[in-house]
Recover the amino acids of this structure.
């Protein structure tokens, strides 16, 4: 299957139009356990409710859990794309409220590394489906490594999720510092999850924004605050996204407000003025030599 990559690239060249690409968003955190995957899932649903075609891609390979949050059994994961020579369409799962989903898998016994050959095949496969969507949301693994950073550098935007806890804030800052070492211009959006109240959340956002501006000389966008809500744990126990499980809950209102805020920012004049290169083109540059 991978030997067909060159012919596939030629066949799909017409699809790699710079203006026919979805908006790609990576959702990251400096540490695990801050609610990153729940945000990725419910934000994707909120985008779908707003009339957008969304693909949610679990890139926490070997530790993915979004299918569990949805109560869906994933028969194939991103690892099977390479090990069983599947196509990316074989991996697509229909999720709630019209979103599509690709699982990252969990409990892998062997270390998985996205080497150059796998990267090339993944890029060629992505070209097949990307033009079908308005947004592709990548739920990245916690922390930073070489593979993650390469993917992040290809994104249009990055959401950084933290909580008001000092350790989470420090780790979020470290993640942004690492990103800025490679690309100072990539748009960063801040989200504070599990805030006790709106004031605590906004103070956390303000402090982190100021620190990033002072020490990294980087302007970041404040996206929103998600309040601490026991509804989330109940929804997780029921294996249902909280937007669906409890649509009138505080956390659901927060999430919908956050999505509206994001879409409003996207509609601002000149929002994409610095976006000239497609996601696929950047992936090719960062992952595959000689392209």
């Amino acid at each position: 299957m991978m030997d067909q990559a060159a012919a596939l690239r030629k066949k799909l060249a017409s699809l790699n139009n710079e203006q026919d690409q979805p908006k790609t968003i990576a959702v990251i955190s400096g540490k695990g356990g801050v609610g990153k995957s729940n945000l990725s899932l419910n934000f994707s649903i909120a985008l779908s409710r707003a009339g957008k075609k969304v693909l949610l891609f679990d890139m926490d390979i070997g530790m993915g859990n979004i299918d569990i949050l949805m109560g869906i059994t994933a028969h194939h994961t991103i690892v099977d794309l390479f090990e069983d020579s599947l196509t990316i369409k074989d991996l697509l799962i229909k999720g709630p409220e019209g979103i599509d989903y690709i699982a990252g898998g969990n409990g892998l016994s062997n270390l998985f590394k996205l080497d150059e050959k796998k990267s090339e095949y993944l890029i060629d496969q992505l070209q097949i489906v990307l033009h079908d969507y308005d947004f592709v949301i990548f739920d990245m693994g916690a922390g930073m490594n070489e593979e993650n950073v390469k993917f992040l550098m290809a994104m249009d935007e990055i959401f950084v999720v933290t909580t008001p806890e000092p350790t989470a804030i420090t780790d979020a800052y470290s993640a942004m510092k690492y990103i800025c070492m490679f690309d100072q211009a990539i748009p960063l959006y801040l989200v504070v999850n599990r805030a006790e109240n709106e004031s605590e959340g906004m103070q956390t956002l303000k402090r982190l924004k100021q620190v990033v501006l002072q020490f990294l000389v980087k302007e970041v966008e404040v996206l929103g605050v998600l309040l601490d809500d026991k509804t989330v744990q109940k929804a997780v126990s029921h294996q249902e996204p909280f937007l669906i499980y409890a649509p009138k809950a505080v956390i659901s209102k927060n999430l919908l407000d956050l999505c509206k805020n994001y879409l409003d920012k996207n509609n601002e004049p000149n929002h994409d003025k610095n976006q000239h290169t497609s996601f696929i083109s950047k992936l090719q540059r960062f992952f595959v030599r000689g392209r």
